[in-house]
Amino acid sequence: MRKLLLSSLAFAIVLNFAASSPQNGQPASGWDLLRKIVLIPGLSSQEGKVMDFIQSTLPSSLKVQRDAKANVWFTVGEGKPHILFVAHSDELGYTVDKITPQGTAILRARGGLLAQTCEARPFVIHTAKGPVEGIIQPKPDYYLSQTALDRAGAQTAAQNPPQSQPSPARVPAQKPLPSPAQKPVPAQAQTPPQGQIQARTAAPAAAEAFEVYLGVSSEQEARALGVAEGDQVLIKKKIVDLAPDIMSTRAVDDRAGCAALLAAALRIDWSKIKTKTVTFAWDVEEEIGLNGAQALAKILKPDYVFAVDTFVSTDSPLESKRFGYAVLGRGAVLRSIDTSNVTPKTEIQKVAKIAEARKIPIQIRNSRGGNDGSVFVADGAVDIPLSWPGAYAHSFIEKIVKSDLEALTNLIAAIVEEWK
Amino acid sequence: MNKKKLSIFAGAALLVVFGAATAAPFEIKDLIRDLISIPSVLGNEEALAAKILSYLPKDITEKDNLGSLFARFGTGEPKIAVLTPLDEYGWFVSGITPDGYLRLDRSGQPHPNFDNYLLGHPVVISTKKGLLYGVVSQPAMHLLTRERREELRNFSLDMAYVDIGVRSEEEAKNKGIEFLDPVTLWPDLSVLANDKWAGPSLGQKAACALVLSLAEDLGKAKLSQEIVLSWMAQTKFSARAGGARSSLGAIRVRRTLQPKRVIIVDVVPADRGEKSPAFGKGPVLILPKEGGLKLKEAVEAIAAENQISLQSQTGAESALLNAFAGEEALTLALPVKFAQTPSEVVDLKDVQSLKTIILQLLQSGRVK
Questions:
Q1: Pair A130, A266 in one domain
Q2: Is the pLDDT confidence value at B158 over 60?
Q3: Total structural domains in chain A?
Q4: Size of the A and B interface in Cβ pairs below 8 Å
């Protein structure tokens, strides 16, 4: 029986490896690469494992370089123009700031997640001993209504009257709230009908107040699990398949960009790139200040930079469609105006022409957010960000459609081959 | 057959062989893992009921028209019932927008901030075509104004839109969506240190697993009285009768079974202040305002014999216990940390301790 089990296991492992390897000589698709790379932990400034994956996926013939920050890149060809494609590998999350005597881990934020969506959720601390699961504790009074909180607050105030009034100089200046005349109060914010309990209106805890419960009751036990200050703490990731070709998960921004770049790198016949210089780069620390790109900008001086990053789409029921309305499923996006860059119209038209010739669907839109390419503009580069339409940006449910990623990959390959 | 399919087939075959060779069918941990992924929203408990029934011999089980399950062992008086809720808090599909997003509503009243946990997270919709996955839309962080962020702090079902990856109401219906389909949080089971697990509705699922785990032992035992295990549907509705608030599901079970001795296996929120049980200090014995003393004596004696630390509460308001007012009844509860959140924490040692107490109580004939 044991031999049968072991043989079956070996058989399954071999076949699974074969199944995930390129089939019939075809390189892995951007979608397949994304489904793997999106699950790898890689908080800003701790992107090592993601870069390991990227490096190990690229063929050795491409002479990949890696700097002290863990930026990874390769360059092919020679001459002008020098075109650079860059995607960032880091993601949002937290680090362990300290461990309490009770064995919980206090967190520090790295990047902008919506704090209220983290409460009472499972997170993973990536320690030197391996992943350790924990729960970000909800506020102690999470189960109380606003009415109950107000009542408790009033009781506390009555029991503890202030001893003296603070001097006016010590009261911090307050930004005035919107006047009630300007902002009509929605019905649900008024006194609830009898019998209904009003949900709380108090602000959720700031990220710095988050504590992770690990199931232990002392600092010693927590450290014995492997937890240490500086460890990256990320949501327990899962890929939610809304459809066979639509997924939702954390870190699509910008692992989709990384995957598209990887897939294009595997697809392009690099031996034919001779009359221009092409660099593909995967950089670090974009979410905390474009730091990786700044390091690369000291050594790479491209004429054009194509930052491959999320297009923050308003294709969602909670967003105004006034801008940013790039529809998921309708193709790649030229992120023509964002918070850090305005792409010249002549360059937009160049890309659009290439896309049209190859029948690659694209959308030309504007949205918000900065991009790594903007760092190279001061040295003379033109920044032309390329994207896919992504809904729910910087949430745990970032959404992407397979055909859009495919269009982006094809667009990258087309630009490499056609750009003059 | 291509390589990928062959690989999946080989893996599945391996799992079947391994499963047959190694799993104990009523191991509590395995039962909890099995049950946590099955939704059982108040009024829609049939999937969980079917799963529990699949573990039990057909000739000892029955269901009522509310959805409650019963498994009977032994004969003789007085009849003892071991009861636990089958239902959990959740939502249901109350609308579909023209562009295919689902709207939600909820039955039952958990704590006031329960709906907040939906924002920006995946959910599971139980449809006639099987389980479907969706995500509750969240505005992009880059586009959040200060005003919008304030609004989100008061997140309510009015702002909840479930994205299932379609573009129209027709597409949603083609996927199997119907009005009133139950909706639950993603059944994320987290394994923490020291035998503590966390997940949505984990306390209730652990209680169901605990009661189910009794069945195997009871099926083999020589019993001197009738014992009925019951998983009660719709316990989170109140029965509309005079007197103290009573659970509808429990009242119905009382009328069906008419037990003389009642042990309710439930969950109790822990770490909520002075009057609340503490997490990590053992299971909780909850007595009604009157009665239950004989059972209490027997439970405490067994706990002492097995060196099980027991916390106790008397006179706590309990809709389940109120349903059995006048009978010899008490509750044995699992203390749960972060109750009614996506990550309820249960100490598996408490689950095992309760199983030990209840099984010895039932097999010993001390409850006469």
A1: no
A2: yes
A3: 2
A4: 222
Residue A246: its chain B contacts at CB < 8 A? 165
Q: What is the pTM of this model?
A: 0.88
* Whether residue A108 sits in one domain with residue A227: yes
Min distance B46 CA to chain A CA atoms (Å): 25
Strands A82-88 and A277-283: parallel
Q: How close A320 gets to chain B, by Cα (Å)? A: 10
Task: Clarify whether residues A86 and A120 are in a common domain.
Answer: no
Residue A272 sits in the same domain as residue A397: yes
CATH number, domain B26-88+201-364: 3.40.630.10
The more confidently predicted of residues A47 and A140 is A47
For position A371, what pLDDT does the model report?
95
Listed in sequence order, the DSSP H helices in B229-368 are 248-257, 293-305, 319-322, 348-364
Q: Which domain CATH number covers A107?
A: 2.40.30.40
Residue A230 lies in a domain: yes
Question: Is A332 part of a structural domain of the chain?
Answer: yes
- The mean pLDDT value of chain B amounts to 91
Buried b (16+ CB within 10 A) or exposed e, A131-150: ebbbbbbbeeebbbbbebee
A51-103 per-position pLDDT tens digit = 999 999 999 899 999 999 999 999 999 999 999 999 999 999 999 999 999 99
Helix (H/G/I), strand (E/B), else coil: A264? helix
Contact criterion met (CB < 8 Å) for B190 and A135: yes
Q: Does residue A405 fall inside a structural domain?
A: yes
Give the confidence band of A203 by pLDDT, cuts at 50, 70, 90.
Answer: very low
B10 pLDDT band (50/70/90 cuts)? low
Secondary-structure class of domain B91-185 per CATH: mainly beta
**Interface pTM (ipTM) of the complex?**
0.91
DSSP conformation class of A253: H
For residue A162, being part of any structural domain is answered with no
Domain locations in chain B as residue ranges: 26-88+201-364, 91-185
**3-state class (DSSP) for residue A247:** strand
Q: Provide φ and ψ at B77, rounded to 5°.
A: -105, 160
Contact between residue B128 and residue B178 where contact means Cβ atoms under 8 Å apart:
yes
- Residue with the bigger pLDDT between A203 and A419: it is A419
Query: Do A84 and A99 lie in a common domain?
Result: no
Verify that A274 and A394 share a domain, yes or no. Answer: yes
Is pLDDT of B96 > 90?
Answer: yes
CB under 8 Å to B255, separation ≥6 — which residues?
A: none
User: A337 CB near a chain B CB, below 8 Å?
Assistant: no
* Residue in the structure block whose two tokens are 């900065």: A370
* Residues of the domain holding A333: 28-91+250-418
Strands A240-243 and A130-136: unpaired
At position A140, the amino acid (one-letter code) is: P
Find the range with the poorest average confidence among A226-230, A263-267, A291-295, B311-315: B311-315
- A233 vs A214: CA distance, rounded Å: 12
Q: Any idea what the CATH number is for the domain that residue A327 is in? A: 3.40.630.10
CA distance B322 to chain A (A): 22
